[in-house]
């Protein structure tokens, strides 16, 4: 699902009160980290990821890594925090994506 501007604004508003669920540290990015992220998004559809100060990667590198290796979309980047969205593979967890598709 390619997100339009209104849909991204809706998702940003929904994620405003979230705390980062995942973080990127000095270990950097790996396939294992990405698979855990993908699994968490199957349950929640919308999460925040923070990039720690001791990390060797930039926000642009994290964004590129996530979007090129999965179907996860980066909704917003603020400083060292990314808001990520993915339509769940499990039908019963698709509450947020159903709301987004109606916008």
Number of strands: 4
| CATH fold descriptor | Translation Initiation Factor IF3
Percent of residues in helical segments?
40-55%
Largest sheet: 4 strands, mixed
Structure description:
- The chain is 43% helix and 19% strand.
- It has a single domain (5-97), classed as YhbY-like (Translation Initiation Factor IF3, 2-Layer Sandwich), CATH 3.30.110.60.
- α2 (31-44) links the parallel β1 (22-24) and β2.
- The protein has helices at 5-15, 31-44, 59-69, 95-102, and strands at 22-24, 46-51, 73-78, 81-85.
- It contains 4 helices and 4 strands, in the order αβαβαββα.
- One of its GO terms (molecular function) is RNA binding.
- Keywords: RNA-binding.
- It holds the Pfam family CRS1_YhbY.
């Amino acid at each position: 699902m390619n997100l339009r501007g209104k849909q991204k604004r809706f998702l940003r508003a929904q994620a405003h009160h979230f705390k980062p669920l995942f973080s990127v540290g000095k270990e950097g990015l790996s396939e294992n980290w990405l698979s855990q992220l993908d699994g968490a998004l199957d349950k929640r559809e919308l999460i925040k990821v923070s990039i720690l100060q001791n990390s060797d990667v930039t926000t642009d590198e994290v964004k590129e890594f996530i979007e090129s290796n999965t179907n996860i979309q980066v909704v917003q980047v603020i400083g060292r925090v990314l808001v990520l969205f993915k339509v769940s593979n499990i039908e019963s967890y698709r509450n947020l994506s159903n709301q987004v598709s109606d916008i």
